[in-house]
Amino acid sequence: MRERETREAAGARQGRGAVRHPVEDGSATRGLAGLQGRMGNTAVVQLLRRSGHPGARDALMPAPAPSPAMDRTASESHATASPQAAPQTAVQRAVTVGGSAVADLAELIASNGLDDLVTDTGRRVLAYLGDPRVKVDLAVQDADYLVLEVGRIAAMIDLIHSINGSGILGRRTLVGQDIAHTGSNDLGDTTALAVNVLDKRGTEDPDRIRGVVNQSLTQPDNGSFSVAMERPRKEDMILREIDELTEGRLSESERQQIARDAMGDASLVKALENMKKGEKLEEARAEVVARFTSLLQERTQNTAMAIVSAPGQDVANLAPGARTYESDVPSDRLAPGGAGGFTSLVLPQWFESYGPLLMDRDWPQGVTLGFAGNKQITAHYKARGRDWPVTVDAPDYAPEIERQLRQFQVIATHILKAAGGA
Q1: Which long-range contacts (CB under 8 A, 24 or more apart) does 56-59 make?
Q2: What is the CA radius of gyration of the chain?
Q3: Which of 404, 62, 6 is closest to 237 using CA atoms?
Q4: What residues form DSSP beta bridges with 97?
Q5: Which residue has the higher pLDDT, 249 or 240?
Q6: Taking Cα atoms as reference points, which of 293, 262, 288, 263 lies closest to residue 275?
Q7: CA-CA distance, 78 to 91, in Å (whole number)?
Q8: Shortest CA distance to 108 belongs to which of 147, 139, 154?
């Protein structure tokens, strides 16, 4: 596993690996995201469940009765994928490995001795990708990267199924129940479940409201995307490489310049050399972080955003004010729906094509589902007591967070990291 993770990270650093193209043209307002905005969550869930979407559990889970308008819109959006809406014809394979179309992905994985690395959920993903009705453009360079990408998709499915069933759990509970999870670089297994509370009471200034949202996503320490970039210290290859840099190295010309500046004062030479070494060390650490930008971007993409539209008073526990702050959840759990629970899940756009694979289980009442496009943001990666600014293309969770903040005045958010990512 460590060798696979290292290879994935190396590919991420060099911009290699999987190339994903959504079914639509990349616009955040089309596809399921557009349907959710026009017709609401029921239309999205109904669409994902309908016949013609492989993986949807139609016979076992009838969809709720739609309104005529919702049914018409869902049918129009579904026309290109449903065999009920159009003749069932095979589409050109859109999954390529090393530039070549592959008819049997499972066989390719098995022939490369990688079958044991595919989970049960991963096999469902492979079956889904192999269905001629599915239109997903996926390009990977070889079988190893195919396994990694299938694992990435499967990890998101497992994450959503888990939180929809058991709720969002804190590290204390996760460790106590021996549940696999992707942690952060802080220490201790008793860390409480934390959320970001966003409060707009006291202002209607759109710039201030937008600032509160952006701070909740990108500020150091508890900004959602800053947290998403973290991994436990023992598992983070970026931190390991930074830790290997113990001191800055001076060139001979730099030493000579320091000697001239010190004018023969030995103690001053030593002080100036130490100061220069410190500067060089920080520069070297910054270079490490910069080399891993693609990997840090992958970490932000392997996330889901949960929104609590009505956090309890024990969570939203500060006086009204236009701000965002981190707060612990005393129960160490956010239930799906209901008072104090999470009421919305927003997933990254790259996962939209795999949405039907979420519908083999009951979708929780009171939880809406949406998909976010991409936006360039600058978050902060914490290492060696510094918060290094990192600019990446991340899921654009901000519009939905801002919309709900305006509607409900006080909300809470929690970013989830899919297990298994680098």
Answers
A1: 56/356, 56/359, 56/360, 57/359, 57/360, 57/361
A2: 24
A3: 6
A4: 100, 140
A5: 240
A6: 262
A7: 16
A8: 147
Which has the closest alpha carbon to 303: 378, 380, 374?
374
**The token pair that represents 409 in the structure block:** 């005045």
pLDDT in tens, 7-17: 444 444 444 45
What amino acid is encoded at 131 in this protein? Answer: D
- How many beta carbons lie within 10 A of that of residue 342, not counting itself? 29
**Cβ atoms within 10 Å of 397's Cβ, excluding its own:** 28
pLDDT tens digits, residue range 127-140?
999 988 888 889 99
Q: Report the amino acid identity of residue 132.
A: P
Question: 164-220 pLDDT, tens per residue?
Answer: 999 998 766 665 555 554 555 555 555 678 999 999 998 999 999 999 999 999 999
Place of tokens 């008073």: 313
DSSP 183-226: --SS--S-PPPEEEEEE-TT---HHHHHHHHHHHHHSTTT-HHH
Angstrom distance (rounded) from CA 174 to CA 179 = 5
Q: Quote the tokens at residue 55.
A: 């993986």
Pairing of strands 194-199, 386-395: unpaired
Burial class (CB in 10 A: 0-12, 13-18, 19+), 120: exposed
Separation of alpha carbons 59 and 331, rounded Å: 37
Q: CA 245, CA 380: separation in Å to the nearest integer?
A: 20
Specify which of 105-109, 176-180, 279-283 reaches the highest per-range mean pLDDT: 105-109
Q: Report pLDDT for 319.
A: 93
The mean predicted confidence, pLDDT, of the chain is 79
Q: What angle do CA 329, 180, 388 make, to 5 degrees?
A: 70
- Tell me if the pTM is above 0.85: no
Asked whether 8 and 39 are in contact (CB, 8 A), the reply is: no
Angle between helices 398-408 and 206-218 (to 10 degrees): 130
Spacing of C-alpha 118 from chain mean position: 21
295 token code pair = 């990997």
DSSP assignment letter at 61: S
Question: What would the pLDDT profile of 59-101 be if each residue is shown by its tens digit?
Answer: 333 333 333 333 333 333 333 333 333 334 444 446 899 999 8
Whole-number Å distance between alpha carbons of 401 and 398:
5
